[in-house]
Design brief:
It is a single chain. The chain is 35% helix and 15% strand. The chain has twelve helices and eleven strands. The chain has helices at residues 16-28, 33-44, 53-59, 73-77, 88-100, 105-110, 151-154, 164-167, 188-196, 211-215, 230-243, 268-276, and strands at residues 30-32, 65-67, 114-116, 121-127, 133-140, 146-148, 182-185, 202-204, 221-224, 248-251, 279-280. Strand 9, helix 11 and strand 10 form a beta-alpha-beta unit.
Length: 287
């Protein structure tokens, strides 16, 4: 590519642009502004466009940069730890996590779960493998939907928070052993439910998996354990399409233990049943 004066050979070919852009962010903390918009287009494409790639690559050779930085510690510090207080909302959060979701005290503490007193929400930090705070997932107590914290909501309107399609981050990535099989689920709460049952090598995509996240799945063995619904099936199929033949893949079906998703699993025996019935993805045949 033009502008490369270091002698380094940059990755070329279909599918390489997202990896290149992510490498720029990873090493330098910044994206090319126009290239970041191109990346969004790539993420919306169902497959790699071999003929169109050179045009996208040429457009990416823009020198203007825009910062993409972790969320500042002062943003996080305004939300107290769930395990550190006995206020009314802290107690509400504790009951929700422990009684409704089956998450134990140690997991709540180890993953630094916080709460937002004024809005009666649980705050779940998403930290990458290098301890960068990438996102704050917000779950309203008494409701089933979640969203990502924004600068305006956090009271830092002059800041810019990266989107998860930019970072490709996973909840739990800072806790796992990459040499061991890694289970991939959708929701951070589901991940913590499984962790509390004793299987600790779990990450969560925090919603439908995106292209940048697929580029970051470098584990040697991956267990695909998405929800047993249409959104979960789409994420599963995307992961298989991207990683088949590159990573040893297994598909875990929660229906094998009479559950719809990891949040429905209440006993270790259920988890053992689901794991023992996993099916391996064979590159030549599928699964």
């Amino acid at each position: 590519m033009k502008g490369n004066h270091t002698g380094t050979v940059l990755p070329m070919g279909p599918g390489s642009l997202p990896k290149l852009l992510h490498s720029l962010q990873f090493y330098y903390g910044q994206y090319l502004q126009r290239a970041s918009r191109i990346l969004t287009l790539f993420e919306r494409m169902e497959g790699d466009d071999e003929e169109g790639w050179p045009a996208y690559a040429e457009m990416a050779e823009v020198a203007t940069t825009a910062p993409l930085r972790p969320i500042a510690q002062e943003v996080l510090d305004q939300f107290p730890l769930v395990t550190g207080r006995t206020t009314r909302v802290a107690r509400m959060a504790q009951l929700f996590l422990m009684e409704e979701r089956g998450i134990d005290w140690e997991t709540i503490r180890d993953y630094g779960i916080r709460y937002w007193a004024e809005q009666e929400c649980v705050i779940i930090p998403v930290v990458d493998a290098r301890d960068n705070l990438c996102h704050l997932v917000v779950r309203k107590l008494g409701e089933k939907t979640f969203f990502f914290m924004t600068p305006d909501l956090a009271g830092f309107s002059r800041e810019t928070f990266a989107t998860i399609s930019q970072t490709g981050a996973f909840f739990g990535a800072d806790h796992i052993d990459t040499e061991q099989p890694v289970m991939l689920v959708e929701s951070p709460l589901e991940a913590m439910t499984i962790i509390s049952l004793g299987f600790t090598n779990v990450i969560a995509s925090c919603g439908p998996i995106n292209r940048m996240q697929l580029n970051n799945l470098y584990y040697s063995t991956l267990w695909l354990a998405f929800d047993d619904d249409a959104a979960g099936w789409r994420s599963r199929d995307k992961a298989i399409g991207k990683l088949r033949g590159k990573t040893r893949l297994f598909v875990l079906n929660w229906g094998d233990c009479d559950a719809k998703d990891p949040g429905d699993v209440e006993e270790l025996d259920q988890l053992d049943t689901a794991i023992s019935n996993m099916r391996e993805v064979i590159p030549e045949r599928g699964w």
